[in-house]
Amino acid sequence: xxxxxxxxxxxxxxxxxxxxxxxxxxxxxxxxxxxxxxxxxxxxxxxxxxxxxxxxxxxxxxxxxxxxxxxxxxxxxxxxxxxxxxxxxxxxxxxxxxxxxxxxxxxxxxxxxxxxxxxxxxxxxx
Length: 126
Known about the structure:
The protein is mainly beta. The protein has helices spanning 53-57, 106-109, 122-125; strands at 3-8, 13-18, 30-33, 39-46, 71-77, 82-88, 92-94.
């Protein structure tokens, strides 16, 4: 057996995934989108695409990411707003040198930016 499954509330279904995937980024890392002008902090990782089919189909076919790669939940910001983003690994780059991210939900999950990443709140690690 080289696959496992998990229930995704976001997708509303069970999602099949390889037993092993390699996430390039970790919880608390600052990343930026490869194409669009926004950055964010990783707060969750799905081993493969685990969002709704409607969300996936809304992405233009020519830029639609592969499903079989990690997808990251981000507390994101751009020049105009803060929001939650769901982004494929192929579309992310490391961005710690860009400094802290300004998102109103950061303090709920993370300690202050340490210059490289956002450490998870101690109360959430126990």
